[in-house]
Amino acid sequence: MKNYNTKHSSGSGINRLFQIKNYRRLILCLILVSRICGYQPEIFAQQNRSLHSDWYIGTNPVAIPLAFNMKPESKRFLPIVAGNEYGTNLVGTCFIRPNQSIEGRLSLSNVHQVAFVGQFHLGSNYFVQRKKVSGGQKGWYFGAYIKYWDFYNRFTHIHFHNIGPYLSLGYMKEMNRFLFDVRLNQTLSVLSWSSLAYTKANADWMLSPWPEFIPVLPTITFTVSYRI
Amino acid sequence: MNLLKLIRKTTVRFLMIIVALSCFSCQEDDTIVQSLFDLSGAPLIYDDSNADRRLKVVAVSMICSKDKGENLDRISGKSLEAKNRYPEAELILFGESVLGWYIDDEHPELYQRFIAETIPGPATDSVSSIAKMLGCHIGFGLTETNNGVLYNSFVLLDPDGEIVATHRKVNLAPEDILGGITPAAEIDSSVTMVQINKIRVGMIICADANGVWLTRELTDRGVEVILHPMASEVPMFKIDAGSRQFNAWEVFANRYGNELGRQYSGTTFIADPSGCIRIGDSGKEGFYFYNIGVN
Q1: Tens digits of per-residue pLDDT, B102-134?
Q2: Are strands A138-153 and A158-175 parallel, antiparallel or unpaired?
Q3: Is A156 in Cβ contact with B277 (below 8 Å)?
């Protein structure tokens, strides 16, 4: 029989140690992500970096139908191939170097009749080949992101805030100003807090929202963007 | 070249239209389908140590036999054992439809009619005498028959053995429909709330948690504890989406074992309003006690 009571006895030394350990998990993940973000492979340093920035604006088309009524099975599993984005979503991408982009993703939608989720992702992608990607070519990349999401219960007016790092592996191709992007995302950990009274923040590993079914559950994201 | 421009323009317009369209959500259906976000996040730390209202609850996970008499004996035995283990317990909660199998796939409606009881009736009389003897509330699920109409019901008896409330399931599962169960209407009398120790206790059954109407009614009435008998095959999750949905403590009691090929998980737990599971387990019969504190 699992008894979780000890975790909740506020003020005890054991409890503080438990919380410190949890925060340490998140900090470790954040350090990992920041190291990746700050990583400058030599192969890129040898290139002539363009001062010209390419801006793209796009959307994840798979996420859009999730704002509407559909079969329960689709509603339950489609988010896995929609990068867990729902409904209205905008993606902004800027190539700050030919082989590096910065990306922001915003998604706002009801996830069901009771809850609204607003989420914002910010991160960077690094292309693993020398070829120029923006401006008509293609390439594999890996990325490191931080995502924030607010799970808002519209009936009780309580917010559940979350922030967590995730890693991506993807492939991007530009055709006639359109950028087509498909990627695999893996969340690592999460820090959560809430507007609910009497609650304290907590951090934990999060490789899957359904660890009981699938211990590691990456999501897939498709994005179509247009160069502006 | 012109054709290329036309394709470009059309695609951009198309993208703009679908983004604009998606601003309008269309989710009129009354059934909530849980999203991945309901279960995502780290379990929060909810402090009820200074709560001034308390309710000591035991949630029971039990194997159900096909035979009604055997199940009534088990309810008696489990109630005695629960009270013996936790003498301070004020409420003992059993699962959904515990007078028999949840569904007999071979003869679904015939079987439900066979185990159905009136309320009050012999089954409630039997449990009533135990509640009176133990001096605590007992809640359990059963198939109710009323003028030939079957309902999936949940009865709560007080320490005097009196029926304090009966809730009829509003949102039916496909198994209920196969069993000939009629849903309760979405009217005021289908919202079941009682006061125990000055705590507003709401009663729902299984898939009622997926109902938008009932969720709104209970949250609008400020429910503080949800009693939730269940017949479910789901494993135990890290976060309880139900208690976050209602902003209430959730006492979740389920059956365990194999019933004609259906493997019930026994997942039974007590979760606080932040969704953190305080006590519970899965994969076996068991008793789960918690002193709930309502802030």
Answers
A1: 999 999 999 999 999 999 999 999 999 999 999
A2: antiparallel
A3: no
